[in-house]
Design brief:
The protein is mainly α. Helices cover 63% and strands 0% of the residues. The chain contains four helices and no strands.
Length: 116
């Protein structure tokens, strides 16, 4: 009789452990994982724009415009260090392209609104 009770107790313990493990796995982090996008184009654009920014002079643009452009590039570089979705990367590329200096207008600042 003792042997049957021992086997029953072991079986119940095994069932309890399995159900607890299943519960922990099922109750894991339910947030959707962010699928990282491809930053190749973004990083290439940042490198190209850094070259433009480093060669910009006050003969071509006001110093404030150069400073704003460099700040926009730095903002994009900082954002690119994190995990970004492809949509966020595309938004940064668009913002960087809009921030490019043109002789008839000053560069635009980049916002950090990366929400999708």
């Amino acid at each position: 009789m003792f042997k049957k009770a021992s086997i029953l107790l072991q079986s119940l313990m095994l069932i309890l452990m399995m159900s607890t493990a299943t519960l922990f796995v099922a109750c894991g982090d339910d947030e959707d994982e962010v699928v990282a996008g491809d930053k190749t184009q973004l990083n290439a654009l940042i490198a190209d724009l850094e070259t433009i920014a480093n060669s910009a002079t006050t003969a071509d643009y006001p110093q404030a415009a150069i400073d704003e452009f460099k700040a926009a590039i730095q903002t994009a570089k900082t954002a690119a260090q994190g995990t970004l979705t492809q949509e966020q990367i595309n938004n940064l590329i668009t913002q960087l392209n809009e921030a490019k200096p043109h002789s008839n207008r000053k560069p635009m600042a980049i916002s950090m609104n990366l929400s999708t």
